[in-house]
């Protein structure tokens, strides 16, 4: 089942249009906490008055999104500690489901959409489930069970363009942790740059007669090899981006409400992922524009942008353009592989414009204090932000 926020399920419940599967998740969500039950009662009252339920949910989402995420992460850490106790497996499974629902989304059916843990290891999962650690400074060949070369690694790049043997569809998944980036050359010579905290699931070899489809969680910059007979499709966060040959950036981190596609050159078509037929009507994106797919409302908004703002991360440059401090925290955590605890809530609404490349996290935070004073403390990879004294 595709990832979705619990909000669309709530709306369908209010319209008495739930499927059996959605009813299962709704029941689990509403039984999870009194807070959830209180919200649903409020929505029922709004509906009874003839009000706009979606607007109420919208107000709650932006205010509560990060609070819910933070609470869920705390619950996950507690669950990890409790997992050492001898819980029956069936109860442990129910506990994990409850945590996922408390976070406000359901897991994708494929591996790529699992959140990438902020560890130091870049990992490659092969089609047989074997996981290999990729050290960025190595030059080596990775082989399959038959001993044939599957992919060649040259430092911070994996190259599949040399592999021509497979006739059956087999997937690999590359996961890039916080604080690192990595590059892939797919079997068709398409080049993919993966940003920190991202993963990509892709075929070892694209099969003739089929679309070239990959699955992204996080952020990737794609330079797609042109092949009119085999459209290239990136599935990310409930949106499919279909191209023939072009350069574009997709940002689809799990905890973000929107999937953003920025087109550098060429053209792409955007489709909701649930539409299996790509011959129908899609939405065309022009170069120099950004499309934001709202996973909650399932709507697309367009904006003309400076593409460098959204693509310079490929060069190791962090570009912030009128970005709220709350969003900046997320970007810094991924870019520098740190955790940031903000105890100065007034900062969240502050907006900054800046560009960083070789600066340390200490340099970056200090530059922000020059515009809006605050105190901070760095202990290993953990940062706490305090109000100014």
Short characterization:
With 389 residues, the chain is of the alpha+beta class.
Distance between the termini: 50 Å
Report the radius of gyration as a whole number of Å. Answer: 22 Å
Total of DSSP H or I helical runs spanning 4+ residues: 8
Quaternary state reads single chain
Structural class based on helices, strands and sheet pairing: alpha+beta
Give the overall average pLDDT: 79
Q: What profile does the largest beta sheet have?
A: 18 strands, mixed
What is the number of strand segments? 23
- Looking at the overall shape, the CATH architecture of the largest domain is Sandwich
Label the overall shape: globular
Number of domains: 3
CATH class descriptor name of the largest domain: Mainly Beta
- The residue ranges in which pLDDT falls below 50 over 5 or more consecutive positions are 61-118
CATH topology of the largest domain: the name is Jelly Rolls
Protein name: Anti-sigma factor
Keywords: Membrane, Transmembrane, Transmembrane helix
Transmembrane segments: 87-106
Domain FecR protein: 174-268
Explain the overall architecture.
Pfam families: FecR, FecR_C. This protein folds into three domains: 6-61; 123-308, Jelly Rolls (Sandwich); 317-386, Phage tail protein beta-alpha-beta fold (3-Layer(bab) Sandwich), CATH 3.55.50.30. 28% of the residues lie in helices and 32% in strands. The chain is built from eight helices and 23 strands. The protein has an 18-stranded mixed β-sheet that branches. Strands 20-23-22 form a three-stranded mixed β-sheet, with helices on one face. It has a two-stranded antiparallel sheet with strand order 19-21. Strand 11 and strand 12 (239-243) form a beta hairpin. The longest helix has 30 residues, at 53-82.
